[in-house]
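#lab-general

N.A. 3:47 PM
ok so I finally got the sequence cleaned up, no stray characters, all 211 residues accounted for. can someone with queue access submit it? mine expired

B.Y. 3:52 PM
send it over

N.A. 3:53 PM
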Amino acid sequence: MTAIAVIAKAPVAGRSKTRLTPPCTPEQAAALAAAALADTLAAVAATPAARRVVVLDGAPGAWLPDGFEVIAQRGAGLAERLAAAFADIGAPALVVGMDTPQLTPRRLAHALTRLDRSDAVLGPAPDGGYWAIGLRAADAAVFAGVPMSHPQTCAVQRARLHALGLSVRELPALRDVDDIDDARAVAATAPHTRFARTLAALRLPAEAVAA
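B.Y. 4:20 PM
back already:
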């Protein structure tokens, strides 16, 4: 069976989801980050997998459920950190971000099934990035030259996988939470998540949300 890993930053005010400020305060942004991470970890915990791993920037806290290993992120940028995560896990793995709280065990199981039938899977995001990548075998060359946090990140990553001769299966697109518009859109599609409840409890002014 394949490992599932969540690449995450510890939810700390001033370091987490800074693009939510404004309209959020740093503390509110951290609360939303914590809620998104909790939803993501709950989905992973409910999905059958060989291992469950958090690839973490920061220190683990009370938010970490039982049954998860923690591996420290290493590398100068996200591309290097993803390559290191696959190398450190040392097994077929699906790596997802912490900012798609609408993720479900059904979506994860679908991703694992597709990875069983290919060398790689890739889950695009509407902003041009991707929310998930899975590899049957770790290979740092997969991420070489791929620009991260760029409108063409997913397209370049897909091309890189094909250039290496890997078979690639696509996953359904999911919107990740970068700014407040993303937060509201994701909460609307998944109203029963902790993330949606946390956002509603913040009672942000309507004019600030729309800005």
